[in-house]
Structures are given as C-alpha cells and as structure tokens.
Design brief:
4-stranded antiparallel β-sheet; about 20% strand; DUF4105 domain-containing protein; 5-stranded antiparallel β-sheet; alpha+beta; 7 helices; about 220 residues
Length: about 220
C-alpha cells in the first residue's frame, strides 16, 4: 500500500473569481485521478434553457443551477495539469498515510472506471464523486465509524449525499474530516499543503518523476 494525497480547489460561488472548484487524488508512485468534462465533445443538457425556460427556472429553484449535463470525460494526468486548468495550486492538500487505504484496489477500480468512452456528468459523475468513489474503493468507509463518531444511521451513499446538486469539493473535505476524526492527524493530515506532489510518469517511459525537482523519483538528488 502507498500514501494518497487528495487535492481540493474550493468552489467559489458568484462574483469575481467564481469557479466550480475541483477535487483530485494522487496515489504515491501510481495513478493520478482527475475527472473532467471533455473540451471538444457536445454537452447534453438535462434542460435546454432556450427551449424550456419554465423547466429551467424550476430546476434552478430546486437545485440552484441549470448547468446539469452529460459529456464524454477527459482526465488530467498530473497535479501540474490541474494547476494550469484551475489557475492556482490546490487550496487544500490532504495526506493519507500508507497503511490506511488499499491503493491496489483503487488502481484496479480506476482501470475499470476511466475507460475511453466513459462519461462525465456534472451531478452524478463529476470530479468530487469520482474522488469519493476512489477513496471508497480503497476501503475508506471502514475508517469512518458511525458508532465512534456518534452519528446516527448509515453512512450516506454518493447518490443520497449528493443533496440533489452533486458532490462538491466541500463535501469531499467533509468526508475527509470524518476520516480524520476517526484516525487522527498522523493518518489523515488535513493540513498537508507543504507536501510536494510527485510520482508523475513521463509519457511513454513508465519512469516516475519527482514533480518538485524534475528528476527521476528514485534517483532525485534533492529528495
């Protein structure tokens, strides 16, 4: 098993600097999981605001947005690509210790999830639901004890916890805080912004690179 980092860019609502936000997950010396909508393919909206303005108003009243659509996905291959797309480094970096998650299970889940024709859905299958599914594939729910935390009922499913508007980066952080309360800071470090993102394969070589210093990870003289 290996360490895992979760990167969160905050959702900024309205006004100058408004942004959807983003969540991504890095497995040490492994997959970088970052789920985005295609830039090139046509988006299929649940409600056409021009053709059905009344339905659009109703949707906006119920869930707070009409930007509900499905499109082919794309994946960013590294943290640096996400920084470029978001225009800044992640607002929060969470480091999960190597013995917490089954990263092999996450890798196997990811291989089946990110097939070429897979879709992105702004509510059901966005960046944040993808990160939560990755964590849960690695056994994260076993570290969020309902009894220990004094919560009632069962842990919410992704669909239920969507709150009709879909998971956002703030929901990912809420889930990680539950893990932190169960395991403590040594296992789930919620303030790991100083952790250097690493382990990005050089395309076509399979060599894992240290992003912090631009050298092969295993022989990086600065690590």
């Amino acid at each position: 098993m290996a360490k895992v980092w979760v990167y969160n860019w905050n959702h900024v609502r309205g006004g100058e600097g408004a942004a959807w936000g983003h969540s991504a997950l890095q497995i040490e010396a492994g997959a970088y999981i970052s789920w985005w909508p295609s830039r090139d393919d046509e988006r299929h909206y649940a409600v056409d605001r021009n053709k059905s303005p009344f339905m659009a108003r109703m949707m906006n009243r119920i869930i707070g947005t009409t930007n509900v659509y499905k499109v082919k996905h794309r994946c960013n291959p590294s943290y640096q690509h996400d920084i470029t797309d978001e225009g800044r480094a992640a607002d929060v970096v969470v480091e999960i210790a190597a013995d917490v998650l089954n990263t092999g299970a996450i890798e196997r889940w990811w291989a089946g999830y990110a097939y070429e024709a897979a879709s992105y859905h702004s509510i059901k299958k966005n960046c944040s639901t993808t990160v939560i599914r990755a964590l849960r594939a690695g056994g994260s729910d076993s570290h969020v004890s309902v009894t220990k935390l004094g919560l009632s009922g069962k842990l919410p499913s992704i669909d239920f916890f969507s709150k009709r508007t879909g998971w956002e980066p703030t929901d990912v952080m809420a889930y990680l805080r539950l893990m932190n309360r169960s395991l403590g800071d040594a296992k789930v470090n919620l303030n790991a912004n100083n952790v250097a993102p690493r382990n990005v394969p050089v395309e076509g070589t399979g060599v894992q690179m240290c992003e912090a210093h631009g050298q092969p990870l295993l022989t990086c003289s600065n690590c």
